[in-house]
Write a structure and sequence with these properties.
286 residues; globular; 38% strand; single chain; five-stranded antiparallel β-sheet; Immunoglobulin-like; 15% helix; alpha+beta; four-stranded mixed β-sheet; 18 strands
Length: 286
């Protein structure tokens, strides 16, 4: 018997099992609990960029898709809160003013034009007093930039028209580090990244970490490598958000809750963190 017959049999069996299930279809009414909206906070501190914070309310997953997007956004935005970020004895009060950062393309509804100080030794503290008097708090700190040591372009020996990208960084084995790696192809801000994931350094045996790609690039392409040095709170938040998105589209997946570093009596979720990163642009050449 040829080996290719096994996959064919497996496919037929898989299809038959689903057809059998289809013949046994039965409608089930689910009594879902009443959804309770939560406050959601996102605040990313980037050295040299203005302070910005997005404060919203979560919306029910099973609600009909909004036809009026502007009205939907207005309904989930939370106005009239008192927002203060304190650092090194200085209070930065964020005004309730919507804005778009043209460099990061992030949207905020609370802003302060002052630039985030480049300080890796002192905490940043967040306090939000909501219109109902409840309070949300959080604390974070900027981490030192982990520079990209080198970017190496390697062409495939068999197909010399295609190349891969290898990105090298040096990791400190004496401490637990967390990273977010992004790679954009030809365009930085207005494109979906080819790679975007978080990782820790538990698997690293020496001081060097290498991030690679497939042979996806041709001569003349531009590659943007971005390496974020992130804290454990942001790592857990990003991973739990990613898992929650995946479980939403998977009928067999387990529900996943968001891991947040928000505190206080408002029951809020979200993230308050610093974003320290190094970015290198490389043009693919032989």
């Amino acid at each position: 018997m040829k080996s290719v017959a096994w996959p064919s049999f497996a496919v037929l069996l898989f299809a038959f099992s689903f057809q059998s299930c289809g013949n046994l279809e039965k409608e089930i009414d689910l009594n879902l609990p009443v959804y309770e909206s939560q406050y959601v906070v996102e605040c990313y501190l980037e050295p040299g960029q203005p302070f910005g914070l997005l404060l919203t309310r979560s919306a029910p997953y099973f609600e009909p898709f909004p036809t009026d997007l502007l009205n939907f956004v207005e309904n989930i935005l939370v106005d009239s809160a008192d927002v203060t970020i304190t650092h090194n004895g200085v209070d930065y009060i964020l005004a309730n003013e919507p804005s778009l950062n043209p460099f990061t393309l992030k949207v905020f509804n609370y802003t302060n034009p002052a630039l985030v100080p480049t300080d890796f030794d002192n905490d940043f503290s967040l306090k939000i007093t909501l219109p109902n008097g409840k309070v949300i708090t959080s604390t974070t700190r900027l981490l030192p930039v982990v520079p990209i040591d080198s970017v190496v372009i390697e062409f495939d020996a068999k197909r010399d028209t295609l190349a891969r990208c290898l990105t090298y960084i040096s990791d400190d084995p004496a401490q637990a580090n967390f990273y977010r790696r992004m790679l954009h192809h030809n365009s930085l801000l207005d494109s979906i990244p080819n790679q975007d994931f978080t990782t820790n350094d538990d698997y690293v045996d020496d001081r060097t970490i290498v991030f690679g790609t497939s042979y996806d690039f041709k001569e003349g392409d531009t590659i943007y490598n971005t390496m974020f040095h992130i804290d454990r709170a942001y790592f857990d938040f990003w991973e739990s958000t990613f898992n929650a998105i995946n479980s939403n589209g998977n009928p067999f997946g387990q529900p996943s809750s968001i891991i947040s570093n928000m505190r206080g009596d408002a029951g809020a979720i979200g993230i308050f963190t610093g974003l320290s990163y190094d970015r290198v642009m490389t043009v693919v050449k032989k």
